Amino acid sequence: MITERYLGGNLAVWTVGRGTPILFVHGFPFDHIMWVPAARSLARCCQSILPDLRGFGASNLVFRDPDEDFDEDDIDIYDAPPTTMGVFADDLASLLDELDIPQVIVCGLSMGGYIAMQFAKKHPRRLKGLILCDTKTEADTPKAAAGRRHLAETVLSEGIEDLSDGASGFLSPVTVDDTPDILEAVQTMMNSQNPAGVAAAALGMAERGDTTAVLQRLEVPVLVVVGQDDRLTPPESMKAMAAKAQRSSFAVIEEGGHLAPMERPMAFEKIVRDWLAKEF
Ligand code: MLT
Questions:
Q1: Do 264 and 8 touch, CB atoms closer than 8 A?
Q2: Could you tell me whether strands 46-51 and 11-16 are parallel, antiparallel, or unpaired per DSSP bridges?
Q3: Longest C-alpha distance within the chain, in Å?
Q4: 215: which residues sit within 8 A by CB, 6+ positions away?
Q5: Which of 229, 266, 280, 272 minimizes the C-alpha distance to 132?
Q6: Reduced to 3 states, what is the DSSP secondary structure of residue 127?
Q7: Strands 127-133 and 222-227, how do they pair?
Q8: Which among 3, 95, 189, 226 has the fewest CB atoms less than 10 Å away?
Q9: Which DSSP symbol is given to 52?
Q10: What's the pTM value of the predicted model, to 2 decimals?
Q11: For ligand 1, is residue 211 a contact (CB within 6 Å)?
């Protein structure tokens, strides 16, 4: 895998493989690592592009101008504004400009799916196809949005460590029992996030709108993938979501949870390859 930095050195991006470009957008509170097993599996047919979103992994939350002198003390990251799904989507479009990739398949999981929908709304001509994993198009309920604001306050005041106590909830019980190293990898990934980046994204998710109408209008092929044991965005709701797109395919990954592509990368690879062969 090759890592490079884009957008004035602010965004860390990994690329692997050759072929159809797929931009993989990670979920919350994760980073590009969740896509590495799937990207490796797809390396013979696809050029996978795996950014760390702004404020996650090795990417900056507050983008710095490389031409200006920068003093860490000048930025109070705790005052950073919410990172909206639109800001994330615009970062991805700018990244594609730098990579000189005019059109791409965007694959987003959960929060990555919210961002992929914003990308489809704001940058429709750049979208060749969409893969939506373990996500939804509805906005938060007022109660869910309040929960996000509470989470943002908590991680800023108490740190990130407690978040990973809930890591097993993202996985299928089969994964937790049979492959504890995957659980450990998810915990490590969660624990390594910047609290300010996590808080900013939580606030951004709280204020996101409903993108169902965007999905309904899309003319490009849409693949909807869900883990059989996903308790956050279960198969029934994902199937109903897929039915709203004009040109959709739907697939369930057995023994996969909310992070099914990370848990079952070979099953995910087969689903994506079959879809690519059918649609492109
Ligand atoms: C994710 O995996 O990205 C989260 O479950 C998204 C969310 O909190 O809505």
A1: no
A2: antiparallel
A3: 53
A4: 117, 120, 137, 222, 241, 244, 245
A5: 272
A6: strand
A7: parallel
A8: 3
A9: P
A10: 0.97
A11: no
